[in-house]
Amino acid sequence: MYKYKIYACTTPLKAVYLCNTKTNEREVNAMVRVGIIGATGYAGAELVRLLTQHKQAEILWYGSKSYIDQRYADIYRNMFQIVDAKCMDDNMEELAETVDVIFTATPQGFCASLLNEKILSKVKIIDLSADFRLKDVSVYEKWYGISHPSPEYIKEAVYGLCEINRSEIRNARIIANPGCYTTCSILTAYPLVKEGLIDPDTLIVDALSGVSGAGRGAKTDNLFCEVNESCKPYGVTTHRHTPEIEEQLGYAAGKKIQISFTPHLVPMNRGILATEYASLNKVNGNLPDENAIRKAYEKYYAKEKFIRLLEHNVCPETRWVEAGNYVDIGFRIDERTGRIIMMGAIDNLVKGAAGQAVQNMNILFGLDEAQGLELVPCFP
């Protein structure tokens, strides 16, 4: 028989944690009560898909102002006989009375417009929008073109990039779930920036995304005939994820940096592939070799379940991460130019949105970080 110790729960979840002193694993004897605002968008629907398989979470509120009182399974037929609930409104104050955590998969400005101390005293917030990702409110307002409704909460919000900010996430009230492009771009370059092996001011990021990244709303540019058999750059020099990547990699570099970031739309449903280029820094008079680069990645990611450092000369592909929470990373050194090409692939709706949000929830409530996320990527 194993001995157990009892720990007080520091989250809104009214539960008692039992810690197995032999395995150091925590068990919790209550379910995390979940509310989702924006449950009928693509990211919200992915939250539903993941959380219905989560052994220690239950969804009590499917918020969608566009489909109030409609059965969720009538909107997403894959949930037939799985989800019986009807969609509710987006009343965050009422929702805070009934759940432990609220996911907001909503447009920019929505979450920040509703947040107040009364809500935060009762519930944790995991926001999938950009409202609390950027620490400089003037940068947010410049790139997003709106006034920030609650800048007083920006400082305390934790940037929810799980593999980098795990310790800060545990005690957060507000988690700013990272963007899809940013998750892939940052994690692909982070160890090399942190270890000083590349010059971050020379970093160029070219990223390709599936159409679901644009959301579920009807837009001419996303119609089948507009997207099929075509690939196009968009948001050139103006994409709103640029300052987010710069800010987070700037923390790794210990200084402010500027990068070039160009996203592209490709005719697939899911996935992001980031190809990143940077000049290598000399170490003891020599450019780092493949062994040094690999050691840097392993230093930060060797124990990370959801980051897979690929073998020599293997490049990541979006098809190998589809519907999974994994980040696949590969790299090549161009000895001729003294530059490195880093490559990363994720599913934009899972690790780039809902999967990372669930991972944040697991950390926040002291659960197994992989709970609800141990899904083998789907192929074909």
List the helices and strands and how they pair.
Layout: E1 4-7, E2 17-20, E3 25-28, E4 32-37, H1 42-51, E5 57-63, H2 72-75, H3 92-96, E6 101-104, H4 110-114, H5 117-120, E7 124-127, H6 137-144, E8 158-159, H7 162-169, E9 174-176, H8 180-194, E10 204-209, H9 224-227, E11 232-233, H10 242-253, E12 260-265, E13 272-279, H11 290-301, E14 307-309, E15 327-334, E16 339-346, H12 350-364
Parallel strand pairs: 4-5, 4-6, 6-7, 7-9, 8-9, 10-12, 14-15
Antiparallel strand pairs: 1-2, 2-3, 10-13, 11-12, 13-16, 15-16
Distance between the termini: 45 Å
Rg (CA only)? 21 Å
The first-level CATH class of the largest domain is given as Alpha Beta
Helix share bin: 25-40%
CATH architecture of the largest domain: 3-Layer(aba) Sandwich
Strand content: 15-25%
Trace the largest sheet across and list its strands: 11-12-10-13-16-15-14
Q: Mean of the pLDDT scores?
A: 92
| CATH homologous superfamily assignment of the largest domain | NAD(P)-binding Rossmann-like Domain
CATH topology name of the largest domain, in short, is: Rossmann fold
Number of structural units classed as domains:
2
Total beta-strand segments? 16
